[in-house]
Write a structure and sequence with these properties.
2 helices, 55 residues, single chain, mainly alpha
Length: 55
């Protein structure tokens, strides 16, 4: 387990999800919804989600 309380295998799975997430040209709502759904499916409690992606 790491400092976030996640198992390393979960971190690998999250990283893989980001790599495979398809691009949808709607400005981000589809991505945000898919990310939240994925994280909830892993058992993460989400009350609010905010993200910033940088290249």
């Amino acid at each position: 387990m790491n400092h976030s309380g996640l198992q390393m295998s979960q971190l690998d799975e999250i990283t893989l999800w980001f790599v495979k997430a398809p691009h949808v040209g709607d400005g981000g709502p589809t991505f945000c919804d898919a990310l939240a759904s994925f994280l909830r499916s892993m058992g993460m409690p989400l009350w609010r989600i905010s993200y910033t992606l940088t290249v």
